[in-house]
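#lab-general

N.A. 3:47 PM
ok so I finally got the sequence cleaned up, no stray characters, all 356 residues accounted for. can someone with queue access submit it? mine expired

B.Y. 3:52 PM
send it over

N.A. 3:53 PM
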Amino acid sequence: MRAMPNFQTDPASACGDAPSLICRWVSDLTGNDELADLIDWLVARPITVLFVFGIAFVANHLLRRAIRRLVARLASQQDAKADPRRIAGLRAKAREKAAVLQMQAERSKQRAESLGAVLRSVTSFGVYSLAVAISLGEFGVNLGPLVAGAGILGVAIGFGAQTLVRDFLSGVFMLVEDQYGVGDVVDVGDATGMVEAVNLRTTRLRDVHGTVWHVPNGEIRRVGNKSQQWARAVIDVGVAYGTDLERAAAVLKEVLDSVWHDALESATVLEEPEIWGIESFGDSAITIRAVLKVDPGEQWAAAREVRKRLKPAFDRAGIEFPFPQRTIWIRDAAPDAAAVEPATPRFESRGEPTED
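B.Y. 4:20 PM
back already:
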């Protein structure tokens, strides 16, 4: 009896060490290694890639949604602290403070949204990069040379765009650390002014003259924020050397206390004003230093209010504001003519000159 031909083949020879179900099925059904390998390339592996990208899409969607919900929760918490309906029912003074609170809430909201955008971008890049790597591995692509080439390309791009990368990273750290935000008055070295916008690459400032400055975040080496928590108005007052210093300090303290107790909207003094004492001895004045602790951004208005009240108070107390004086000596007496007149020679009849 003649033996039946055996069409069984080894799936590993056609589909590799980890054969797919489709490749196994075709190999067992037809016994053709080439056909099984072709079906594996045209059907099984594309299906696997689609499955991988489907999982990546779902994972990316869920992660981005979680980030958006987290950002929305943070933003809603800040909005609740500065509800416009609550602000409308307050008095003028309270509305002023509530408006500041609303600005701070807007700043925190903008910071949360910026960080959320960064996290969403990083999440999408990471998820889809992993999906691409898995898909290339399914087609038998060696990822080692690709990773090395990507590393070299990344180094080249890093050298070419290192300024942009530096600005981006600096912007991320500024947002994370909350160094400043919209509405703050900051000193960044080259420019000083109020922050109008902050993004991952640049910071936009407007100075006291109205000039708008666009400062790259990577060029900011230091930041002096004049609008966080509280501020201090430093007032130096010069008095003449003949002034009774105790009397001058007492009048100055009365003016400071009046500003404190009046609770002005534009100059809210948080603590009792202080007289620090004599600051310096100048050419024509003794400088007395006083300070007021005020709300952020109100130090300049507080100092102007003190100076406005100090002038009439000093006038009533007979205290003089010194000013530079110069003494000029003028000599109006005519000098002795004999002392400056040159000797004139006289001539005798013989024509020989002779001097007296």
